[in-house]
């Protein structure tokens, strides 16, 4: 081994030469991961809290009833109940741009703070976003992500699995994605949770339990609870599937809230988790 010191030194130099260009171009796995996390936790101010929803509001879509399995390490990742619908950023997207691009998938994450990843603009069809028109139960609406490439308006879409461009996830259920064009699969409706009140047209409430129905298929937004553990949170797939009991009441996986206010208790949990993480990484402080 002593006689091979020159060969080992040359091999290390060759490895460094291959690594240096990736480091200069910010293409190492660590740099891509940090860039992805920085994008995901970019805080976005949403519309000030109001009891009703208006066209043009900045909102995030939360299911507060989904139970999240505890981490194997025993460290709580900020919250144990609730997910938000969030864009799925991958390092491949950053090879082109750091903006939201067409075809991005949408998933459910345990990150309940409004960020660039889970904030959408809700719009009522037939009126402009500046009109601030009240949204009623049964109105056709769309959800548009923020920070899109060239600041174009794109839409949350869900195509049926038998469509040629539909996408199936791990659970073999159709996935939600971002569409660059408006079409029939981008239309959604807010439906009353109470099946006996669904024929009454009243303003849709904010920060309250509702059902989000896909207008093209009449299926409803559903969290699949097939969990994937990531570094700072957990993810599960979101699809359209109607799940209800014998009394036509929706199951917890189908009940959502369209929020225009920051959940104070979830924000405090997020801050507590960040403090614990900092304490673990800096035990001497």
UniProtKB/TrEMBL annotation:
Q: Which GO terms describe its biological process?
A: cilium assembly
A GO CC annotation recorded here is:
motile cilium
Q: Which InterPro entries match?
A: CF161, His_PPase_superfam
A single Gene Ontology MF term assigned here is: phosphatase activity
Gene3D superfamilies the record matches: Phosphoglycerate mutase-like (3.40.50.1240)
Q: Which Pfam families match?
A: CFAP161
Instruction: Give me the segments passing through the membrane.
Output: none
PANTHER family for this protein = CILIA- AND FLAGELLA-ASSOCIATED PROTEIN 161
Protein's name according to its UniProt entry: Uncharacterized protein
């Amino acid at each position: 081994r002593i006689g091979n010191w020159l060969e080992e030194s040359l091999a290390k130099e060759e490895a460094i030469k291959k690594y240096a260009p990736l480091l200069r171009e910010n293409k190492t796995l660590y740099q891509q991961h940090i860039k992805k996390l920085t994008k995901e936790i970019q805080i976005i101010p949403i519309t000030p809290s109001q009891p009703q929803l208006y066209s043009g509001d900045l909102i995030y879509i939360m299911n507060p009833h989904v139970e999240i399995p505890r981490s194997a390490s025993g460290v709580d990742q900020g919250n144990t109940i609730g997910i938000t619908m969030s864009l799925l950023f991958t390092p491949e997207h950053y090879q082109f741009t750091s903006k939201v691009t067409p075809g991005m998938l949408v998933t459910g994450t345990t990150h309940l703070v409004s960020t660039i990843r889970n904030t959408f603009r809700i719009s009522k069809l037939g009126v402009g976003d500046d009109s601030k028109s009240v949204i009623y139960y049964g109105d056709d609406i769309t959800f548009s992500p923020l920070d899109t490439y060239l600041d174009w308006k794109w839409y949350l879409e869900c195509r049926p699995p038998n469509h040629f461009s539909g996408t199936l996830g791990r659970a073999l259920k159709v996935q939600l994605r971002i569409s660059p064009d408006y079409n029939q699969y981008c239309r959604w409706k807010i439906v009353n949770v109470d099946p006996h009140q669904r024929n009454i047209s009243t303003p849709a409430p904010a920060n309250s339990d509702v059902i989000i129905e896909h207008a093209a298929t009449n299926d409803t937004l559903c969290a699949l609870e097939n969990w994937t553990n990531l570094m700072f949170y957990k993810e599960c797939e979101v699809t359209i599937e109607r799940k209800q009991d014998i009394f036509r009441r929706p199951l917890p996986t189908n009940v959502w809230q369209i929020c225009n206010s920051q959940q104070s208790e979830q924000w405090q949990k997020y801050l507590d988790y960040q403090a614990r993480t900092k304490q673990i990484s800096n035990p001497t402080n």
